[in-house]
Structures are given as C-alpha cells and as structure tokens.
Design a protein that fits this description.
Largest sheet: 4 strands, antiparallel
Low-confidence stretches: 1-37, 421-428, 472-496, 530-555
Number of strands: 15
Helix content: 25-40%
Number of helices: 20
Strand order of the largest sheet: 4-13-12-5
Mean pLDDT: 76
Shape: flat
Structural class: alpha+beta
Strand content: 5-15%
Length: 718
C-alpha cells in the first residue's frame, strides 16, 4: 500500500508518473485491514461522507483530477458507453477506498476537526497570500477575470466543505462548521426571537444588559448589539411594607385584590381560571419590635395584573385598639416584569445564517425580590434595634444606605453567597427565576444555499468527460496539464454516468442547524434532507447521490474459481476440525441412543466406555466424521455465498439482507445433508456395532451389499 501526503491512501501498483504528479509515501501497514463499516461509522465517517469527500477531491484537487483522467487510459478502445461507465464506477470505487484508508489518520472525537482544518488550508487559501507568493516567484499578477475565478473557486470550496461535514452524524465539528459558514455568509442580525421571557425583573433597576456572542467569522468583524425592553408579566414580584404597624399579637390576614380580568371571566392560556395573588404576614413576637410586622411573603404570585390597574393590599387591624396605641400596617404590591422584546442597536457582521445565535440576557438582580428601600432589609438597622414605624428611610438612613461599590455591602455579600450555588446546582436568581431564552437570526445576501461557480467554469471538463465516455478522445490527447486542469461541473447532468459520479450538491441545498440533534443537517431551505433514505424517497433531490454514491464502496467483488475454492477450503477445514474434536461426544451420544439400558447418562456413559473399551473407543468412526464434515463444510459454505449473491441480485436493490442469508444458508444445509448422510451412516454403524467390519471401508461395503445403497441416505428425511 501507499499513502498520499494528504492522508489519501492509494494502491501500490499505481506509478508516480501515472498519477499525474501525486507523491506517494510507502506504508507497510494496511490500515484498512480489519476496518468494518461499523468501525467507520463509529469514527464518524459514514459512507455518504466518504463518497462525497471523494467527489470533492476529484472536483477541487488538480492532482486527483489528473489521476482520474489518466485512468481513462485503462479503458478499452472499443468499449461501449455502458462498459466505460462500469469501469469508471470501479475506478471511482477504488479511489473512494483509498480515501477511506486515508481517513484512518483522522479518527476520534477531534479527527473531523483536524480534517476540516487540513482541507481548508489546502483548498481555501488566503487570496492575498497567493498574490504575494506569485510576486515572490516572479510571476505576473492575475488578470481581473482570473482573480475573480480564483476567488469563486475558494468560496465554492468553502461551501462544499461545509456541506461535506453536514453529512456527518457523529463527532460533527459544529463550531468549526459555524465559523466556516460565517466566513461564507458574513451575515448580520436581521431579527430576534424571544422564546422565554424570563421572570423576576423589578421596576426601578433599568433594562437588563443584552450580550451577543462575537462573530463566528473571527477578528475584523463587528459584534452585534441590542437593547431589552421590559413589560409586566401579570404576576406580582413582592409585597413591600409601607408601615410596619404596631399592636399585633398574631400575624394579620393579608388580602390582595384580584386582577380586573378575573372579574370579566377571562382565563389563563392553559384554560384555568385567573386567580389573584395571596400572601402571608410575619410579625416580631419578641424584642424591642414586638407587635410589628416583620415582612410579607407571597404565597401565590397570581396572574393577569396590569400596570395601569390599582392593586390593593389590605391587612387586618391589630388586636391593640387604636386608642391604646395600635397602628394598622400598610403595604403595596410590586409588579413582576419580563422581557417584552429585544431591539437591534447594531446588526453586526460576520455571523453564520444557518445557525440561530443564542443571546445572553442579564438575569434579575439578586435583590429584585427584596425591598432594598427598607432599612432593615438593607441591613442599615438591625432587627434587634428599634425600627422606625415606616419603611421609607429619612435623610439619615438614606445616607447610611449600602453603596453598591462597597465590597462589604449587603448586595455584594449576597453576590458572594449566591456564587457558592444552591443545593439544586443553581446560582443566585437562577434558583427561582426563569432564564431568558432568546435567539438572533442573521441574514446575508449569499449563504450556503448559493453556489459561487459560474457555468463557464465547468463547461470544458464536462465536454472532456462526455468525450471519454463516448470514446472520442483519449486521456493523453485531452490536453489536461496540471496547472490548466478544467474544473468539474457541480451536480452535472451530463450525457454519461461518470459525470454524475463527480456531481456535487447544487445551488438551493444548504445547511440548517437542528436544535434537537445539536448538529447541522442538509436542507432545501424549507425542509431538511435525510440522506439515509433510498432514492425512492418522496423528495429525491439527488437520486444519484445516495445509491450511486454507496455502490463503489459497498460494491461486491466479482468472485472467480480460485475464490470459491478458498471458500470451500475454509468451510471444509473449520467444520471437519470442529467435529473431529467433538467425536468423543458423538460416540457417547450414539451409545446412549443404541443401548439406553446400559448407558443411562452422559457422565456414566463416559466412565463405562473408558473402563470397558479404553480411551481409543472415543474416536471410533473419526474417519467418516472428518471426511463427511470436510465435504459438508466446504459445499455448504461455498453454496451459501453463491446462493446469497444469486438471491440478492434477483431481489434487486432494497432487499432485506437477513432473510436472504437465512434462505441461502437453509438451502445450503439441505444440500449438505445428502453429502453428510452416507458418512454419518457409516460412523453410527461403526460405533453401534464395533465388530461389524474391521474398518470404515469394510463397513461401507457390507452396508451396500446387504442393505443396498439407499441405506446410506435413508436418514435424510429425518
């Protein structure tokens, strides 16, 4: 075997001159040996990926193109179009097999990422660096037309590489694909969708900060910016005390007016009736603040409240009479806010349009559900000290209110405690506030659905391939120089099947990110494509891509006489060796069947035979056993493969493999019964009647003479 520097292995018999300048490296290890289809799938490179990578190389690699057209010299001069197509199919299969071997260098989770970077480095170079290299080599600059064509080729190579890795299902390099698509698209944010509006936002804190991720295309692009707008969620966030009251011996009953929509009979989205909020009051039972209200805690936030309607909070009066100094407590309800919308301030550049962008929205402040204007809640006054009757701070208390920049303030201490996390794995407000979920959708004038090549870029090579198929030109007269190779048309519908072998996905097919699968999938813009389906799918966008793409790699090799002889030898050796080793068990089984009175069980039968007849008796009839299963194994093994191929070809594409194998095996075993039965008859007679004849030849002759030839196969129906 040999291996290309680009990790695409090839056959050793290929000469360097025949390969159009390809450089080969000797590889003493056959890396494809022992690699099954399952192993290839586990590595992430499914058959569709390998096939499409082969097409990509033949379309974009000049050396591979040269090899492909050089192989046209192997075509017979008088071959028909059908014969040429069949040989080209075989050559494509050999090339795909070499690609599969080369992919063994890119195994594991990080293999696809390394492979993508290698392809991008080789086929998508920086045009500026190419121009600088031409200048260093003393070459004149490219013309405007040539430079435009070069740029189109690089962009189309990026698109095709993105589509190639979109075929992967395992270990798909999602981040790298996104970055690649961003370089193609250079998208800007066009709209923002708020999926979950979050919860727990309070009035007075201002709009939360909206953060966009940096552009996937990398440096030199502009990060998008946005601004969030809040709206009431319809629920209450908290109930603040205005006056703590005095004279309470037990917590007062808190009554909150229901929303106005509840009186009109409106219902929630799930059909349940709209209910007002409920709350519970707590009092100081001891200390200097005994008889005052400590706090009011919401039990049910309610739903349906609006910003403009008055929300009344009523607390039952204290048990102490007003004349004796009792003071009723008062409170006010605070509405909860949620994200209404996110407006775009700067659309940004360098984003991929195929994958929605997750936007981060700043969560509510840790103190949003706490009245930080209350001196006690702000820890300005300790609960052990006398509290003022009202929670509205005076000038002195306002001066002592916590400074957010002070690391020892209650807010910063709360942040430190919240960063330690809760018991459920959450941190801070995330423990009881819903997170905002929002996605931004970029838009670009050109995306992965648009191809960059012009039709003129592919006309020449299409004519060359068609001429090869019709045998009008030879590869040596095609004039294909390494640096002047024509570019193969994408998704060609040329006159020959070989041009379809080299077709790529056309304009109109791109990539879309599947949130459920968390990977990219091929799409036509309005629906995703499942390339695991056969060509009989309801929407066969490219029917040649699936079946014709799979056949070179999974194409069954034509078998000759030497191969079937090896099948025969393998089955014969395996079956005869196994049954020869099991001869003692067959002897004991026959003893038990022919003389059940004397031989009652397997263990005692072994002991009786060993004691009375010796160890050599265990191999009585070994010769017919060995010979019988030698021929039976050889015939059955060979016929199974022969019949399987016959039934598969007869059933056609899409046939179930398991029933075919079972049918082939069953018929082969039936045929083998006629072969093994005479040998088994001689063996059983030798074991059951040791004195019947001196050897197996004598047993065979006496059975035929006394009982007739039919006695040798009389047990076949059984």
């Amino acid at each position: 075997n040999g291996q290309m520097p680009s990790a695409m292995a090839v056959e050793r018999r290929e000469k360097m001159a025949d390969a159009g300048g390809l450089m080969w490296q000797p590889s003493p290890v056959n890396k494809r040996s022992g690699v099954t289809v399952f192993d290839a799938e586990q590595s992430g490179y499914n058959v569709r990926f390998i096939t499409y990578l082969s097409r990509f190389l033949l379309c974009f690699d000049a050396d591979c193109q040269k090899w492909w057209y050089t192989r046209a010299s192997d075509l017979p001069r008088r071959a028909s179009t059908e014969e040429v197509d069949a040989m080209r199919l075989k050559q494509f299969g050999a090339f795909s097999a070499s690609v599969e071997v080369g992919l063994q260098e890119y195994k594991g989770k990080n293999g696809p990422r390394a492979l993508m970077n290698s392809l991008l480095k080789r086929y998508c170079p920086d045009p500026k660096k190419l121009a600088q290299q031409r200048e260093r080599d003393g070459l004149s600059p490219l013309s405007d037309a040539a430079e435009g064509k070069q740029l189109r080729e690089i962009k189309e190579a990026r698109r095709q590489i993105a589509l190639l890795f979109g075929l992967m299902e395992t270990y798909q390099p999602v981040e790298e694909i996104t970055k690649l698509l961003a370089a193609i698209d250079n998208g800007s944010i066009s709209r923002i969708e708020v999926v979950d509006r979050g919860s727990g936002y309070a009035p007075g804190y201002g709009a939360p900060l909206v953060t966009f991720p940096p552009p996937e295309a990398g440096e030199g692009f502009v990060t998008a910016q946005g601004r969030a707008k809040l709206r009431p969620s319809g629920a209450l966030l908290r109930v603040d005390l205005l006056n703590r009251g005095f004279g309470y011996s037990k917590p007062p009953i808190v009554e909150i007016s229901p929303p106005a929509v509840a009186a009109r009979g409106n219902r929630n989205e799930d059909g349940s009736p709209i209910c007002g909020a409920t709350a519970k009051a707590f009092i100081f039972r001891n200390g200097v603040n005994k008889g005052r209200i400590e706090r009011i805690q919401l039990l049910d936030e309610g739903a349906g409240y609006t910003k403009d309607e008055p929300i009344r909070v009523k607390l039952t009066p204290p048990e102490m009479l007003l004349a004796d100094g009792g003071v009723p407590a008062t409170g006010v309800a605070v509405l909860e806010y949620e994200i209404d919308k996110i407006t775009i301030v700067n659309n940004g550049t360098g984003y991929a349009v195929e994958k929605p962008i997750t936007i981060k929205v700043e969560p509510p402040p840790l103190t949003a559900r706490v009245n930080m204007n209350d001196p006690m809640m702000a820890r300005v006054i300790s609960p052990d000290q006398p509290l003022p009757p009202t929670t509205i701070p005076n000038k002195e208390l306002l001066r002592r209110m916590p400074d957010p920049t002070d690391p020892n303030s209650v807010i910063n201490r709360a942040n430190i405690e919240a960063s330690k996390g809760g018991g459920g794995g959450c941190i801070g407000r995330a423990c009881y506030d819903k997170k905002v979920v929002a996605y931004a959708y970029p838009q670009a004038q050109i995306d992965s659905y648009r191809q960059f090549r012009s039709n003129d870029d592919a006309t020449k090579v299409q004519n060359v391939e068609a001429a090869i198929s019709k045998r009008k030109i030879s590869a040596s007269s095609s004039g294909l120089e390494k640096d002047k190779l024509p570019l193969i048309q994408t998704f060609g519908r040329g006159p020959s099947s070989s041009s379809q072998l080299l077709s790529l996905l056309p304009e109109g097919i791109g990539l879309e990110y599947d949130r459920m699968l968390k990977r990219y999938r091929l799409s036509t813009g309005d629906s995703t494509l499942d390339w695991t389906q056969a060509a009989s799918s309801t929407k066969p966008i490219d029917p040649e891509f699936g079946p014709r793409g799979r056949s070179p790699i999974e194409r069954e090799m034509e078998l000759g006489i030497s191969t079937y002889l090896r099948f025969f030898g393998s089955g014969a050796i395996c079956c005869s060796a196994v049954h020869l080793a099991l001869t003692p068990i067959d002897v004991v089984k026959t003893k038990i069947q022919t003389n059940p009175v004397k031989y009652t069980s397997v263990t005692s039968s072994f002991q009786t035979v060993l004691r009375e007849e010796g160890a050599g008796t265990f191999f009585t009839g070994w010769a017919p056993t060995f010979l019988g299963f030698f021929f039976w194994g050889g015939v059955a093994y060979t016929m199974t493969e022969l019949l399987r191929r016959f039934f598969t070809e007869y059933a056609g594409d899409g046939a179930q493999e398991v029933p075919i194998i079972l049918a082939a095996s069953g018929l082969s075993a039936l045929l083998g019964c006629f072969i093994i039965c005479p040998f088994e008859a001689v063996r059983i007679r030798s074991v059951a009647q040791p004195d019947y004849a001196p050897n197996i030849v004598g047993v065979l002759q006496r059975m035929v003479k006394e009982e007739g030839p039919s006695s040798l196969i009389s047990a076949v129906p059984a």
